[in-house]
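Build the 3D complex.
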Amino acid sequence: MTASLRLRAAIVSIFLLAVFLGAWHLATRSTGTAANMSPEYAKLMGLTATQGKSAMPGPLDVGAKLWEHLKRPFYDNGPNDKGLGIQLAFSLGRVMLGYLIAVAIAIPLGFLIGMSPLMSKALDPFIQIMKPISPLAWMPLALYTIKDSSLSAIFVIFICSVWPMLINTAFGVASVRKEWINVARTLEVGNFRRAFTVILPAAAPTILTGMRISIGIAWLVIVAAEMLVGGTGIGYFVWNEWNNLSITNVIIAILLIGLVGMVLDQILARVSRLVTFPE
Amino acid sequence: MSIFDDPFDADSRVNAGCICGQHQSPAEHEHALLALRCEPVVESQEKRYENVVASAVLRAVFPEAATRRAFLKSVGAATALAAVSQFFPLKTATEAFAESGTPEKKDLKVGFIPITCATPIIMAAPLGFYAKAGLNVEVVKTAGWAVIRDKTINKEYDASHMLAPMPIAISLGLGAQPIPFTVPAIENINGQGIVLSMKHKDKRDPKDWKGLKFAIPFDYSMHNYLLRYYLAEHGIDPDTDVQLRSVPPPEMVANLRADNIDGFLAPDNICQRAIYDGVGFLHILSKEIWDGHPCCSFAASREFITAAPNSFAALTRAIVDATAYAAKAENRKQIAEAIAPANYINAPVTVLEQVLTGTYADGLGGVKTDPKRVDFDPFPWQSFAVWMLTQMKRWGQIKGDVDYKAVAEQIYLATDTRKVMTEMGLTPPKDSYKSFSVMGKPFDPTKPDDYVASFKIKKAS
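Done.
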C-alpha cells in the first residue's frame, strides 16, 4: 500500500514538473515579430529588441547553460570569475564556520538557560527581540565594527542561526520530564552525570530540531550576505550575473541553492532520527 | 646602521636615531613623515634621494667605515661629495632611483564597480600596466558604492575606484566617519547619460518632467549633481518636483523594465545596456551638460600613501599609463574585448564597444557617432573638486562655510600627479585650476561662493 502511494506521488510530481516546464516554455517563446529596423542599427541591439525574444529565458536555455556549468564546475578565471563548484564550496565553508560557532555557543548556553527558570525568564525578552532581525540589517553594523568583509559574513550567519538553537535547547532542557530527574535524584546521581546521561538524551530531539531550523536559516543568510559583500560564493555569483542581466544564470543559481539547502536539511533530519526515542 | 644615515658626517654615531629607528635623527623622521604624506616637499625629497645615492657610492668606494671616516675627516664632507660626483654621475643615478623606488607592498588589492568608468583600473590588469609598474594587483569587483567605501576604509582594498565626489565626502565625514582620502587620478571624463523609459518617447522637454521618478547611483556622485543641475536649469526643483532615488547601477535597467522608475542618469555601459535590451532610449549624453566633466576617480587613503609611498607612486604611474592608453581611439576596440569577460565588467562586448568607440544606437532607431562619449584624462583638476563642493553646498549636503581651496588641494593631488606625469615623459597642465562652463554658465574656481549664490533653485537653507 505504501509503495503504491509513493509511486502515485512520484507520478504526480513528475506530471506537475512537466506542466510547469511546458507552461514556462510556452510563456517565454519569442514572439517572432522582428522589429522593423535598419541592419546597422539592429547590429548594435540585443536580441530582445531585435527579434522580440523574451527577456525571460526558457527552460531549454537554462538547461543548455546548466550543462555548460556542470561540464566545468571548478574553473578559475581570476578573482572575479570562478566555477560554480568553487563558489558553492566557498559558501558552504562560510556557512559551516558560522554555524559551528553558533552551535558551540547556543547549545551550552541554552543548556544553562533551560536548567534555570529564572535565567530563562530574564533572557527571554532579549532573545525574542534579536530573533527576527534580518541578516541584511546586521550587515552594515558588522562591516563597520568588524572591519573585515568575510568575517562580517560569518558573523551574520552566526548571529542569525544562533537563536533557534538557543531557544530550542533551552526549551528541550526545561521540559525534560520531572519524574526522570527525580529518579536520578533518588539514585544520587551527580549534577554533571545527570546533565549528560538524563537531560541531554531527553532533550536531544528538541535540540536537533533547533539545529535543523538553524542550518536552513544559515543557508538563507549566506546568499544575502554574499550578494552584499561580494568576492566569492554563490551569492556573489547571483549578484554578478544579475549585473549582466543574465537571468539564465540567476535561475541556475536559484536551483543550486535550493538543492544544497535540501541536502543540508536532509543530513540533519537523518541525524535527528538517530536520537529520537519512542515514549 | 641604517641606509639613510649620512656617510658624509664624520661624527655620525651608530645609535643616534628617531623613534621608529629608520631615520638618523628625530628631525629627519619628521621630514620623512611629511614627505610621505605628499605635502609639498618635492625639492628636499629629491635631495634625500641624492643623499641616499651618494651614500651608496661613497660606501662602495670606501667599504671600510674606518677608512671612510679618516678620508672624510681629512678632506671635509663637501670636498668628498665633489670628489665622488667627479667620477660618478650622481644626478642621473638619483633620477633613476627616484623613478623606481621599490614598492613597499607589491601585492595590492584594488576594488572596482563593474561599469566602463573603471576602464583604466580594470584594463591595467589584463593589459599588463600594473605588472609594468612592478606591482601584482588583484582587481576585485564590488557590489556597490557604500560597500566599496567601507572596504577601502577597512583596508581590505589598498585603493579603489570611487565616484569623483566620494573621496571629498569621506574626507569631510559626510555619510561616513571622516578619514582623509585622496584622488591621485581621475578615471574618466564624460561617459554618463540620461536614459528615459520608452513610454516617454515624446516627453523630451525637461519642463514636462514634473512628478517623474529618476534613479541616480549614489548621493555623492557627479550623476546626482549633473541631473540636479540639468533639471534646475529647466526650472524643475529636484527636491520637490521629481523623485530622485539612489539605486545601484545594475538594478537600474531592471527597475526601468519593471516601470518602477521613469528614467535615470547613470554611468555608461548601463545606459547602453538599457538601449540594448530595448527598455529605454538615450535622452542626452552627460557630455551635452558639461563637456569634459569628471565622472569617477581613483582613490586611496592618506594612510596608504604614508605607509607605502613607493607602492602608491607605482600605482599612480600604472593608472596614468592605462588612462593614456585608453584615451587613444584606436585602442578602444581592443579594450572593450579585454574588459568584457565575467572576471571584469561581465557585459556583452557589443555594448562596451558602443560606449567606448562612440558609435552607438540611441534607442529610437538611429545610429549616432560621438568619439568623445567617454574619454580618459587622468589629471585631477582641483577646480573639479571646487565645483563639486559648490554643488554639495547648493544641495545642502554641506552646511556652513567651506574652505573650498584648502579642501580641494588636500584631496585632489594635482601636484603629485603632475610630478608623476612629468617623470613619465607626459606633459601635464601647468595649472591646477581651470575654468569651464556647465550648460553655458561659466564657472570661476576663484569665486565659489558667488557661484553658489547665483543659482535660483537650490535647497533652502
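The interface with chain A takes residues 114, 138-143, 146-147, 150-151, 153-156, 250, 253-254, 257, 273, 275-278, 341-344, 346-348, 350, 354, 359-361, 365-367 of chain B (CB under 8 Å).
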